[in-house]
Amino acid sequence: MDRAEKKAFVTTLHDVLQQTSVVVVAHYSGLTVAQMQALRKQMRAAGATVQVTKNRLTKIALDGTELASVAGLLKGPTLLAYSTDPVAAPKAAVAFAKDNDKLVILGGAMGKTVLDPEAVKSLATLPSLDELRAKLIGLIQAPATKLAQLSTAPAAKLARVVKAYAEKDAAA
């Protein structure tokens, strides 16, 4: 990479990191190419991105962002996993690290909050944004459904009583 390409890369990475809400930093040494491709595929499916960059360029790109606190973790062969959904990248990284012990989660950041490896793992246990939205919609719809059931229940009970009396009279 020449100087112009490095500058363009740093600018692009800086813009991407400005828009992300969470970043996870991990060591990846020992992973095979097939395992890295599986990690990228799993991250893509979760709505996250994995990027292996030079630590020096990443530190420059992190300057001026809320995620600048992860710069201290960038030592050795590291990768960045990031997403706009606060749960997607940690969830995919923890799931992959569970199956592959070569991926070691060092920590991360969510906004200005620094995350240690345990915080990343606990963040991964939270439901995703889409799951939370579905639960919220279910909770909002539940009272209306219950109200509709309660309003029709007395009429249904009355209809069953009338039917029972009609059948009793028909049998007699």
Task: For the structure shown, list the relevant keywords.
single chain, 172 residues, Alpha-Beta Plaits, 2 domains, 5-stranded antiparallel beta sheet, 6 helices, 5 strands
Structural account:
The protein has 172 residues and is an alpha+beta fold. It folds into two domains: 3-126, Ribosomal protein L10, N-terminal RNA-binding domain (Alpha-Beta Plaits), CATH 3.30.70; 127-172. It contains six helices and five strands, in the order αβαβαβαββαα. Strands 2-3-1-4-5 form a five-stranded antiparallel beta sheet. The model has no long low-confidence stretch (mean pLDDT 86).
N/C terminus separation: 97 Å
Oligomer: single chain
CATH architecture descriptor name of the largest domain: 2-Layer Sandwich
What percent strand?
A: 15-25%
Tell me the Rg in angstroms: 27 Å
The secondary structure category is alpha+beta
Could you write a compact summary of the structure shown?
The protein is α+β, with helices and mostly antiparallel strands and 172 residues long. The chain folds into two domains: 3-126, Alpha-Beta Plaits, CATH 3.30.70.1730; 127-172.
